[in-house]
Amino acid sequence: MRLHNKVIIITGSCTGIGKAIAERCVAEGAKVIVHGLEPQPGEVLVAKLGKAKARLHIEDLTANGAPQRLVEVAVTAFGKLNAVVNNAALIATSNINSTDSHLFRRMLEVNTIAPFALIKAALPYLSRTRGCVLNIGSVNAWSGEPDMLAYSVSKGALMTLTRNLGDTLHRENGVRVNQINPGWVLTEKELQNKQEQGFEEDWYATLPPAYAPAGRILRPAEIAAAAVYWLADESGPVSGQVVDLEQYPFMGRNLPKDSATLLHLLATRPVPH
């Protein structure tokens, strides 16, 4: 087991990518703190994983003192802390015209400041175990789409945080910090979003090759498999690194030039993690 006896906090893990990471971590021998805003799916997941392997904490991470309370839940339940996975995120479409200061601040609070605050709260315990942090970003961190302005900026800031702390915390505290940037992932929320937009139930079965050369998009379990490497000791001393998880190069792509294909791509534009 690659994560034997490790204690890991996974934010935003009641559903989606976070849930898949929690399931895979337990399968690899870890104990996890499941966190999110949705009690019902969280309770179902903890019951599935077992009380000996999982605890649930429901709270908005931007609330005053929330990061400290989440860390306390882990240490009280399992006696130590080996890793933090910052997965929780606010996703909203917005561009230069529709983004106001309130939305921008909220996006940064959830996607950048809350992960920072949790790392800071967890640092004394991670230092004792020479643990690690894994931030879950997005390929949109590199520039983003016109209609994902605030979200993309928040993930870009998270990427800089990863590189900065990945250097300083590794040297000063023995704590590694890395990040994975998922592309388009078939989560429960993405299925719901597309149905609400009027797409057929099996829309993901007939995706244009420009977005899905493999004929499908990524699955949460595939992101979870990648996460285990960074949480396990086998990733060794590597720190301050960001890895994109997508089936094509996100930057410098040559998209089809015919307008019909481009219109189809825009109509099926993904809502990334």
UniProtKB/TrEMBL annotation:
<dbReference type="InterPro" id="IPR002347">
    <property type="entry name" value="SDR_fam"/>
</dbReference>
<dbReference type="InterPro" id="IPR036291">
    <property type="entry name" value="NAD(P)-bd_dom_sf"/>
</dbReference>
<dbReference type="InterPro" id="IPR020904">
    <property type="entry name" value="Sc_DH/Rdtase_CS"/>
</dbReference>
<protein>
    <submittedName>
        <fullName>SDR family oxidoreductase</fullName>
    </submittedName>
</protein>
<dbReference type="Pfam" id="PF00106">
    <property type="entry name" value="adh_short"/>
</dbReference>
<comment type="similarity">
    <text>Belongs to the short-chain dehydrogenases/reductases (SDR) family.</text>
</comment>
